[in-house]
Amino acid sequence: MTRLAWAILLPLAAAQQPTKDWCATGTKLPDFTEAHFSISATAMTRLAWAILLPLAAAQQPTKDWCATGTKLPDFTEDEGQASVELVYAQSPLFSTNPKIGTKLRWLNLYHTALVVVQKLPGVEPKNWTIEFDSVTNVAGAVLPNISGMNLTWNNDARYCVTEGILWGEAHWSKMFEVAVRLSAAQARQIFTEFIPSVNNTAHHTKPLYQLWRAQSRTDETLVKDITCGDGVNWILHYAATVLQVKPVAGFELKFTSIVFRADRLDPVDSSEWTEVVKYFQSLVQFMGPHQSELQRFLEFLHLMPIHYVYDSNAKAYFRVEGNHFPWLEIQYQPIDLEGPPWNHSELTRLPETVIV
């Protein structure tokens, strides 16, 4: 059984004791006006552990990111007809790892991409896949390199375009539906104008991968997450605003966000830098490949509630105040089309939000 399954199922075994008088205090009709529902802290801790464990278990260092990528698809001219489809594709996170498979669908953890399909009469269909991701891997993007008291990050996020439907259509088991239809000239503009404006930025400059979103109790975003779903969102926003092609009728964009709530975030000052380093050292230990499940569990208890967060794109560390149980939550909700959340090059002229 995989580590993930063990981490999810363990509370079922650990929480149960022999039952002498089954349902001895049962009632037939709940008093809904006074009813209470509770989950043990131990069970919720283990569930959160099950969410985070795959980040450590599934990821290996990426030596040759986008090694088979291409810059510009060879679209066939279509005389302005809408021959190109941008297909919104999703699969359970880390499902290419046989130890995990599709299990993370039960937690609404999905990887999001775009598949580009060109169809013309009498011509063999052509396919390409666009992914937006960390150039290392997810674990590499959320963990710093620690040398003494110095923390350095390698969390550039970029687009990768590969020929064909990456891993085959069956891999995208959660979602595989048309989002936008474009002409070849319009689709080519995405690859010659928009994607280079994101990919041709210097190392350790925006966009930088940000796994967590920090959110206030009133739903204000304190730290914006930047993940695979955002890259898809930006392209669809570009199509809707610059190319003036809205998504097809009935289209709804959803993708996974990992969120922690807090009362507030306070900027870190030099007086507490030692504590910041210690906290990230513990996080690195927790995600280490040679940790036993018991060691990982004990480290997790030390890490929660969340003490500190690094905002990659602001290059700032914050002390987290008021991150209460259950500490982390997974959201899979409809998202409005948005461009990148900063001004750079041609993107400065894009409207901030488009409602579809």
How would you characterize this protein structure?
It is a single chain. With 356 residues, the protein is of the alpha+beta class. The chain is 26% helix and 26% strand. The protein has 7 helices and 16 strands. It has helices at residues 3-14, 41-58, 138-142, 184-199, 228-241, 273-287, 293-303, and strands at residues 84-92, 110-120, 123-134, 145-147, 150-152, 157-163, 175-182, 212-216, 221-223, 254-262, 264-267, 308-311, 316-321, 329-334, 337-338, 353-354. Strand 2 (110-120) and strand 3 (123-134) form a beta hairpin. The longest helix has 18 residues, at 41-58. The relative contact order is 0.15.
Strand proportion, as a percent range, falls in: 25-35%
* Average pLDDT figure: 83
Assign a percent range to the helix content: 25-40%
Q: What is the count of β-strands?
A: 16
Summarize the structure.
The chain is of the alpha+beta class. It has helices at 3-14, 41-58, 138-142, 184-199, 228-241, 273-287, 293-303, and strands at residues 84-92, 110-120, 123-134, 145-147, 150-152, 157-163, 175-182, 212-216, 221-223, 254-262, 264-267, 308-311, 316-321, 329-334, 337-338, 353-354. The strands form five sheets. Strands 6-3-2-1-7 form a five-stranded antiparallel β-sheet. The protein has a four-stranded mixed β-sheet with strand order 9-8-10-14, with no helix packed on it.
Write the layout of secondary structure elements.
Blueprint: H1 3-14, H2 41-58, E1 84-92, E2 110-120, E3 123-134, H3 138-142, E4 145-147, E5 150-152, E6 157-163, E7 175-182, H4 184-199, E8 212-216, E9 221-223, H5 228-241, E10 254-262, E11 264-267, H6 273-287, H7 293-303, E12 308-311, E13 316-321, E14 329-334, E15 337-338, E16 353-354
Parallel strand pairs: 8-10
Antiparallel strand pairs: 1-2, 1-7, 2-3, 3-6, 4-5, 8-9, 10-14, 11-13, 12-13, 15-16
